[in-house]
């Protein structure tokens, strides 16, 4: 495999970026504009109905971010004209046939000019409505593949997926519960219990394709058209009986979980992403397709500056609740490995893989993670959090610093149930008695807290098969790509993606945790 110069490849190229408002997509866009201003054109497909809405999203959800400050400083007064010259906004919707492109002239322009398509569109909500997740993560992929086959100059399609859906999911479960103080309604204190749920199946997860009809539990018969029919029938049934919007939303969420579990997946997100990959393999035909699977993506390590992050992302939920003094327990293997990778490293791997397979058309799957070459444990994460928030505590609205300490580690389900009973369910029973004695004075509080505890117990049971994951992600293909890049003159100082070089102590203490506090803490 020969990669060569990424900068040379990008010059005069036209790239279609799908899902351009996403976290990784913004970093990908900024990187190209900053390092190769001679890129010809970047089509940004945005999920909107018209050009005015597309421009609004560009200005407010992309260019307004601190991420673009370096580029703005570099270009100065020329920034707006540069953006206008390089970016073409494309109103569309990949859940629709033809990606929802209404402008036939613009569609023809994209088909005739595009050299590379990068698909980053997805809903990453684990508990998403099934109709939405299936439309975007599964049928959206089909529509992208169909469109790619119409692009006459296309050299490669890069599909960004996820490494986690093969064996596990991660989920932060947080609820507010009564901390037993006294039974006065005004003095009842709320705090949070959070259980960080990991998976239990282990081994080496290989960089292998998913074939259509595969399942995690061996159940056969997976058919996306049948899944679509199930969704449509359920929606018709709900509407016929006059279900409210909330009832439809809940039913669609429950349906997604149920359908995922039929085939062995724990939630709707990982199920629909997996089936999306199956469609890539089934429908790609003669297209040169690269599937890139990042693991847990965290803040930028170096570029355009260290520590930029957006949204509460997986392990960041853990940091936020811990830093605010609301994390009381950790459910899982504290010595287990958590595979994380900074976002700029993922973007660099995307660019290098894209160039390699555009020059030499072929198919490939790349895991971009750290668990094989530079493993990080949950114990280390806890240590970093304790050290950082002890030295730099979060200040509450009342001006008092939040004190943090080591959380209670629960290593099995029996311990978890006992912990929940003693600390939360038993006090709730006391609240129930007080409520009865005081003429239902605490009824609303009791019902709310009871519901939240039930939600936690249900979700923990739902993710029970995945709570003690003990696996790592093979990245042999990615390592071969790194070696090829070094040996063929790629600008590896600019397009670095070797996770072995990361000093986790420096990264979390000096970059990631400060970044979370700056961009996520509210």
Commentary on this structure:
- It comes from Flemingia macrophylla.
- Catalyzes the reduction of fatty acyl-CoA to fatty alcohols.
- Keywords: Lipid biosynthesis, Lipid metabolism, NADP, Oxidoreductase.
- With 522 residues, the protein is an alpha/beta fold.
- It has one domain: 3-Layer(aba) Sandwich (Rossmann fold), CATH 3.40.50.720.
- Helices cover 46% and strands 14% of the residues.
- The protein is built from 17 helices and 15 strands.
- A seven-stranded parallel β-sheet has the order 3-2-1-4-5-9-13, sandwiched between helices.
- Helix 2 links the parallel strand 1 and strand 2.
- Helix 7 crosses helix 8 and helix 14 packs antiparallel against helix 15.
- About 7% of the residues have low confidence.
**Shape-level CATH architecture:** 3-Layer(aba) Sandwich
SS strand fraction: 5-15%
Q: Residue share in helices?
A: 40-55%
CATH class: Alpha Beta
Which blocks of ≥5 consecutive residues have pLDDT under 50? 167-201
- Total domain count: 1
Physical arrangement of strands within the biggest beta sheet = 3-2-1-4-5-9-13
Main pleated sheet: 7 strands, parallel
Number of DSSP strands? 15
User: Would you tell me the structural class of the helices and strands?
Assistant: alpha/beta
Give the CATH superfamily. NAD(P)-binding Rossmann-like Domain
Average of pLDDT: 87
Number of helices: 17
N-to-C CA distance: 47 Å
* CATH-derived topology: Rossmann fold
Shape: globular
* Radius of gyration computed on alpha carbons: 24 Å
């Amino acid at each position: 495999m020969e990669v060569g110069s990424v900068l040379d490849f990008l010059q005069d190229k036209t790239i279609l970026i799908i899902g351009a408002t996403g976290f990784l997509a913004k970093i990908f866009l900024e990187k190209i504009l900053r390092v190769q201003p001679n890129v010809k054109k970047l089509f940004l497909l945005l999920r909107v109905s018209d050009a005015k809405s597309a421009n609004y999203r560009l200005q407010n959800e992309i260019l307004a971010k601190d991420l673009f400050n370096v580029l703005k400083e570099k270009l100065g007064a020329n920034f707006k004209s540069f953006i206008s010259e390089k970016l073409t906004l494309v109103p569309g919707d990949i859940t629709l046939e033809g990606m929802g492109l209404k402008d036939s002239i613009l569609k023809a322009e994209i088909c005739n000019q595009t050299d590379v398509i990068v698909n980053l569109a997805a809903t990453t909500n684990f508990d998403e409505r099934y109709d939405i997740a299936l439309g975007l993560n599964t049928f959206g992929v089909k529509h992208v593949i169909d469109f790619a086959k119409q692009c006459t100059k296309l050299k490669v399609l890069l599909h960004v997926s996820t490494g986690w859906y093969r064996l596990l999911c991660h989920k932060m479960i947080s609820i507010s519960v009564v901390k037993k103080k006294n039974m006065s309604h005004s003095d009842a204190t709320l705090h949070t219990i959070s259980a960080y749920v990991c998976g239990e199946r282990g081994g080496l997860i290989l960089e292998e394709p998913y074939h259509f009809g595969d399942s995690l539990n061996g159940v056969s018969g997976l058919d996306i058209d049948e899944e679509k029919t199930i969704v449509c029938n359920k929606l018709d049934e709900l509407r016929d009986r006059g279900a409210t919007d909330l009832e439809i939303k809940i039913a669609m969420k429950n349906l997604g979980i149920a359908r995922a579990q039929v085939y062995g997946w724990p939630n709707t997100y990982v199920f629909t992403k997996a089936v999306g990959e199956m469609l890539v393999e089934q429908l790609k035909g003669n297209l040169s397709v690269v599937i890139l699977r990042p693991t847990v993506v965290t803040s930028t390590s170096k570029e355009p500056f260290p520590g930029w992050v957006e949204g509460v992302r997986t392990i960041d939920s853990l940091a936020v609740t811990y830093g605010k003094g609301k994390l009381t327990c950790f459910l899982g293997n504290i010595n287990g490995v958590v595979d994380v990778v900074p976002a700029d490293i993922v973007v660099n791997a995307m660019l290098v893989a894209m160039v390699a397979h555009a020059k030499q058309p072929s198919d490939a799957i790349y895991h971009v993670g750290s668990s094989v070459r530079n493993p990080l444990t949950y114990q280390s994460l806890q240590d970093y959090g304790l050290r950082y928030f002890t030295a730099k505590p979060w200040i509450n609205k009342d001006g008092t610093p939040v004190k943090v300490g080591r959380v209670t580690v629960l290593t099995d389900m029996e311990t978890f149930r006992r912990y929940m009973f003693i600390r939360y369910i038993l006090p709730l029973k006391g609240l129930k008695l007080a409520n009865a004695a005081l003429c239902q004075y605490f009824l609303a509080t009791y019902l709310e807290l009871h519901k939240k505890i039930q939600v936690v117990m249900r979700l923990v049971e739902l993710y029970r098969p995945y709570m003690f994951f003990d696996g790592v992600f093979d990245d042999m293909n990615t390592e071969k790509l790194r070696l090829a890049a070094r040996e063929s003159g790629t600008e590896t100082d600019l397009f670095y993606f070797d996770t072995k070089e990361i000093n986790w102590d420096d990264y979390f203490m000096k970059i990631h945790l400060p970044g979370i506090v700056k961009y996520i803490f509210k």
